[in-house]
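[PROTEIN RECORD]
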Amino acid sequence: MRAALRDGPYDVVTRLLRGSYFDCPISIPPDLVIVEPSRLKATALLVPALSRHPVVGRVPWLLVLDRERLHLAAEIPCTDFIARDFTPAEALARAERLMHKQLDREFTVRSGPVSVDLRSHEARLSGAPLALPPQEFALLRHFVQHPGRALDRDALLRSVWGPDYLGGTRTVDIHVRRLRAKLGEASAHCLQTVRQIGYRWDPEG
């Protein structure tokens, strides 16, 4: 797929699929994600993990399937799919179609007093800009995208820091404390502690 898109006006970045983990950065989301598993790789575990991914789950994604697996397309929650023996012209056409649709999508997630712009990588509190370093922004984004859900510390480490992160769960506590300080007394209550589990974002407080 990379070879098919290299002549187009695109900045193509390759990331690895490690089992069911997509090695994707936490910075500004791409306009399109193209998932190209190795030939005949089982999708039973891969697809649910990708659809829940904080990046892939928020932007269009194009899945490359072996012709032997095309019958599975109806059951896969991807935005579009393409057979592995595609032509460069077909790959470009599908990519451009999905990216044009992306331009019309809503890129701002709002939850309670917080809004997160997924494209500009900015967060606002009651309309005022929140100055957050990348990791705090990624953590806040993850919370507001999963309102009302109790998230344990290990799951937060895997989702926000990635499975290769060597630090402990204390890292989550430190970043939550910093986020609460920046949310202020009027909004910090939205980021709740769930005893013996972790944290929950409750926009109703």
Observations:
- The two ends are 46 Å apart (CA to CA).
- The longest strand covers residues 61-65.
